[in-house]
Amino acid sequence: MILILLLYLVFSSMIFFNSSIMLTNPYPVMVGSVRTLASALIVLGGFLCTYSFGQLRTKFRQLCSLRFFTMSFCLYIVAISFFSLAMQYLDPVTGCFIFVTAPFITALILYLYYDVALTVQKFAGMLVGLVSVIAIILLSPHHTVDICIHQKIWSSCIFFLATAAYAYGWVLSKDVVTHTRLQPMFVNACAMLVGGVITMLYTLGTMVTGYVQFSFTSDFWPMMAVFSILTFASYNFYAYLLTIYSATFVSLASFLEPAFALLYAWLFFGQQMSVSAGVCMLGLFAGLYLFHREE
Known about the structure:
This protein is mainly alpha-helical. The protein has one domain. It has 13 helices and no strands. The protein has helices at residues 2-24, 28-48, 53-63, 66-86, 92-99, 102-114, 120-139, 149-180, 184-209, 220-241, 247-252, 256-268, 275-292. The longest helix is centred in the middle third of the chain and has 32 residues, at 149-180. The chain starts with a helix and ends with a helix.
């Protein structure tokens, strides 16, 4: 359980970096390609210290399947780019409301394709967690983005597609690791490499054709370096936790993100935390505990 808390502490900090970068450097595909490629190279560089290039190539050939490439497409092309794209136009509160559908999408996928049904206690835990996290979102201080209704509708749809791709990608990740019996970190790094190369080729294409004019602020690359390290740590840690817990439980723990965001605001920005928010956080942990008891 402590490992889950650490994972979502890092994920919550990534929201800050994503929002800050997209505010001044609105290039979602490029930001996604840089962070995934950098993360993949960090991991694969570590593996090269242990294995020869030929051994890694043999391992990669074991991965080459429709399941693996679909995982890479969902996580590191669709989800990672669409989240950033949608957040240019979507207010954080709406984004949080949409993202809490992730564990329910995960549970639905597992039921439809893997015949994995939730027990009554697990479903109760999900509902308690959902009610608590919605209350936390409503109690959190937030701002809204002044955009027209059709922009909000299409950006909400993009964010939901990213959430669905994110949920399905992690289900496939657990499946790939189970079938190939390769290290989760290696599987994830290879998926990042594939997604990063494809999105970088797209980015280079837009640069060459002049379709997008890139102009970066002075703090762009330092922030991308930190963002890439956080991506490396969180996504590989997520892949590792899938070998311990079910995909639904790891996804359900994403309910912690709004709670940690509220905690960060209290610790670092001096915002007051109400008693109601504290009670809701206790309810959230109670829901996670109910679900975790049957893991």
